[in-house]
Automatic annotation (TrEMBL):
Metal-binding found in the keyword field: no
Organism annotation: Sclerurus mexicanus
Protein name, as recorded: WDR86 protein
Signal peptide: none
SMART domains tied to this protein: WD40
Gene name in the database record: Wdr86
Keywords, sorted A to Z: Repeat, WD repeat
WD repeats: 11-43, 93-132, 168-191, 192-233, 234-273, 314-346
Length: 390
């Protein structure tokens, strides 16, 4: 059983639950989006609040942080872009007719998914809608983006018009489908059918042409994103699959059944189950051989990813942990209780590194022993052959 940890800092500036936490690519800042309708910018160097973004007319559902700009989407049907240095609102993207659930920034594009059953593409700089993706029969919950250059050979591309812009958007919906769209035309390239429940999460492995989707039907499905073929169905969860993480061809899935499972992508075999949660697993993050989870039971946990052993419990939140981030061996947890908590994880990271080093050393000795044993057996075999005149 893991020991409890106490937070090194608790940030209580928000007046409502924190729905999302985003880390800038350079690791210098964090962005929190809250039920209080505001977003806050935090320095990872000293954990101080460096910006307060106000302007949304309803709660913020999701946020995304770049190095110089922040993006927030809201139940007020809009998306906003903010200057991280001045806190000034740089752009308001209007067009959705219901709650905006999710945003994704890729290249010069800003993508959004909404309860209005559409996804949309915007020009980041021009505050202008470029494309609307219409075809889902219910709300769009999750998004992914890739370029066909990552997955297609030149001769595989079908139409000349698509060669101008080869970007594709993937959308998951409560209508039980996943759709793949050409960004340039708004045309649906693939509809992936198989789920019998809402699609809650997506994770893309473009180099291997694979897409993973988790659903309220308790399954994870793997798809070939070029052909649309369903490759595998991972079926062992007993509740909705809420979150996914892909690391070194290992897929980690967090579920309402209070567990995380680890699967070998190439075989579909489930190789580990991480237990101890007293409620749904709402978020997870892999870091340096450790699996960190956030749960509806208001605790974060650290597991040895290989053995499944619980190494630490982080207690202090009062409600569900909605998001976690890790930077410089600090764990950041954002909760519906309105607080951002920061935890020192150097101790468990160090212990884990020592354990990995020891395991490698043992494996090395084993391997050397095995080689000597094989060499000895080969020599004995040769001697037997010579004695038998073979």
């Amino acid at each position: 059983m893991g020991n409890s940890g106490s937070a090194v800092k608790v940030c209580t500036d928000h007046q409502g639950g924190i729905n999302w936490l985003s880390l800038s690519p350079d690791g210098q800042r964090l962005l929190t989006g809250s039920e209080d309708g505001t977003a806050r910018l935090w320095s990872t160097a000293d954990s101080q609040c460096r910006g307060h973004f106000q302007g949304h007319e309803s709660y913020i559902t999701f946020c995304h942080l770049e190095n110089e700009a922040a993006f927030t989407c809201s139940a007020d049907h809009t998306i906003r872009k903010w200057d991280v240095l001045t806190g000034q609102c740089l752009a308001i993207y209007r067009g959705h007719t219901s709650i905006v659930n999710r945003i994704l920034v890729a290249k010069d594009y800003l993508f959004s998914g909404s309860y209005d059953r559409t996804a949309r593409c915007w020009s980041v700089d021009k505050e202008k809608q470029i494309q609307e993706f219409r075809g889902h029969r219910n709300c769009v919950l999750t998004l992914a983006h890739y370029s066909s250059r990552d997955v297609l050979e030149e001769e595989e591309e079908e139409e000349e018009e698509e060669r101008v812009s080869r970007d594709l958007l993937v959308t998951g919906s409560t209508d039980c489908t996943v759709k793949v769209w050409w960004v340039s035309s708004g045309r649906c390239y693939q509809t992936l059918l198989g789920h019998t429940g809402a699609v809650l999460c997506l994770i893309l492995d473009a180099p291997n042409r694979e897409l993973f989707s988790g659903s309220t039907d308790y399954t994870i499905r793997t798809w070939n994103i070029v052909t649309g073929e369903q490759l595998k169905v991972f079926k062992e969860h007993q509740g909705s699959v809420i979150c996914l993480e892909l690391v070194n061809r290992h897929l980690y899935s967090g579920s309402a059944d209070r567990t995380v499972k680890c699967w070998l992508v190439d075989t579909g075999e489930r190789i580990q189950t991480y237990k101890a949660h007293k409620h749904s697993v709402s978020t997870l993050k892999y870091h340096a051989g450790i699996l960190f989870t956030g749960s509806g039971d208001a605790c974060a946990r650290a597991f040895n990813s290989k053995s499944g052993v619980l190494q630490k419990i982080f207690r202090g939140h009062k409600f569900i942990i909605n998001c976690i981030q890790i930077h410089n061996e600090l764990l950041y947890t954002a909760s519906h209780d309105g607080t951002l908590r920061i935890w020192d994880i150097r101790g468990i990271c160090k212990r884990n590194k020592r354990r990995l080093k020891k395991e490698r050393s043992v494996q090395g000795r084993s391997s050397q022993k095995g080689s000597l044993s094989r060499l000895f057996n080969n020599k004995v075999g040769c001697m037997v052959q010579q004695e038998n005149g073979e």
